[in-house]
Structures are given as structure tokens and as C-alpha cells.
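Assess this one:
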Amino acid sequence: MKIIGFRIGNGYIRPTLLCYNPIIFSAVSFRIDTGCDITTLSLNDALNLKLDFKQLGKPFDILGGGGIVPTYAMLNCMLGFDLGNCILSEKLDSLHVSSPIITEANVEVIKSIPSLLGMDFLQRYTIKADNNYMYLER
């Protein structure tokens, strides 16, 4: 089984994100990040999805590359991958949603932070790359 993504920088894949509470059914680009332990939806993608943070409960702090980041957890989400002849659905026990404090000094940096596909998901696959594509295989 092979999931194909694009090699731009570290590599990206674009699955459909499916959640039931809150309801989400939308394609999201995730950067493949073997240095990240958890799969995380960026603030920019959360805002594009019109995610209502009040539905996510109470935030908790996570230590990220830029320091402490307030984060929410969405439970029982799935990533759907179109493999051409079938759809592969992969369950995520939780999807973390970053909600960093925005200031005038960091707003442009925060806008550029992508959603990350972390090792909680990637450990299920072998990652390969060629000139233009990334492959997740098992």
C-alpha cells in the first residue's frame, strides 16, 4: 500500500480530514515531520476550516519549537487517502490544534506554520522519497 505526497521542502501529503465533533470533512495539507511526536493542525488551517475553538474544551500547554503553545485536542479523527482504486482511512487517537498567542511581531511566522503529520501517525509507515514525490508505504 502506497500513499503518495509531494516533495516540497520536507514533503507534504493532502488527505481528507474527517472529524465528528466538531464536524470537519475537508482536505488539509500536512507536512511530513519525523521530528514531531504528534500530528498537529496549524492555527492557519484551523481558521480556514472555521473551527470553533469553544467546542474543543479547555486548552493545555505543549512545548514546541518556539516555546509553550496553547493546544486543544480533537479526539477520534481520521485521515482519508485516495489511493486511486480505493480510499484508505487512518484513525488518529487525537489531533492537536495549535492556538499560539499572536502578536504583531510573530503574526507572519504563525501564518507560515503548516499542519504537521507527526510520528504518532508516521510510525505506521516507511517513508521514501524521489525527486518530486514522497511515499508512505507499508
About this structure: The mean pLDDT is 88. Helices lie at 43-48, 107-112, 119-122. The first strand starts at residue 2 and ends at 6.
